[in-house]
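JOB MANIFEST
job_type = single_chain_structure
chain_count = 1
residues = 413
[input]
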Amino acid sequence: MFAAFGHRMLASMSGTDPRAEMPLNWSDLGVSELPSGIVTLLLADVAGSTRLWQTEPEEMTAAVAQLDRTVCEVISAHHGVRPVEHGEGDSFVVAFTRASDAVACALEFQRAPLAPIRLRIGVHTGEVQLRDEGNYIGPTINRTARLRDLAHGGQTVLSGTTEDLVLDRLPADAWLTDLGSHQLRDLPRRERVVQLCHPDLRNEFPPLRTRETVVAQHLPVQFTSFVGREAEMNDVRQILADNRLVTLTGAGGVGKTRLAVQLAAEIAGGFGGGTWLVDLAPITDPDLVPVAVIRALGLPDQQGSSTMDILLRFVGDRRMLLVLDNCEHLLDACAALVVSLQGGCPAVTVVATSREPISPVAPVIVALTPLSSRAGARRRRPRTRAGAGPRQRPRSPAPPPRPPARRRRRRRG
């Protein structure tokens, strides 16, 4: 594949350039070498190419020619450099000195009219090793290839390292969706994976192509042990087995949020789409409730789409758990949000905390009462070291024994 490039190392010529038919060296284009040090790599291949060549050979011939032209033009526009070896079969590699250029290039690849071709793209940033002046070897390119292998046709996935570099420099209208932490084939360290999304792209895909997944949990860290609510935990678990909405009610400070977070953490494994907590305590305007939710999900505003449209499109068929915390001052707005979510998203589950019920859309309520003094005492009891036994209060030294009283003799008169 990509025979039109011959051994050109930098794809920067358009189809009208007179040099496009002859092999080029970097020196011809003012480029001396591949970028080194910390580099962002883009690896792509054609999903299902073997089947496509067998079933649609004529369409594939035209599509591959178009892909060759697109790759050449897009890489040049975004300052990418291609190694000598473009990859095996239908794959190719591009190197960038800036991660934001790599992401913009990936977006253009996916938006290009290449049917029936659909590209799987992986983007990762790391320290590279040069095998020679025109090729990379080592862990960074291996990790990028394994990352690409997780994707489906038409999907672009980024490593957590690249996400941190581009989060504030995404192309216009683009956003990132957290897909959780995944084990990459033959590599010991898990990788946090995010998906590049855009209104012009397909953004809904099956689960990534991996056997083992750690579900993304977006929950606050708890610094104390959880005790004293085992019965309530079991009740809520049983309720959620048959209901997609439950409200935890009770007075302020009774422990609604703590119970909701603990519950979400324990059942997160059943929600492949992730688990999120949305804190509504700072929100005073009811119209901002959907905005608070999409901010918690990490979604940006999208021109031409309402906040609810963005939210419903993102949640879609994902099996997700949302914890709406502190709803008591926004009851009507929370009720409207829940109705929209459960009407348009068949697999979302909501746990709400509120001093008052979110009625009438939330008929299933678990009312919390204060912990008993015994449970409170257990919560305050300090931990002991393993094998040290129970911690005992030191005893005061015993007072010295008193001397026996002397009996007086009475004189007889």
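[summary]
The two ends are 136 Å apart (CA to CA).
The domain at 217-367 is CATH 3.40.50.300 (Rossmann fold).
exit_status = 0
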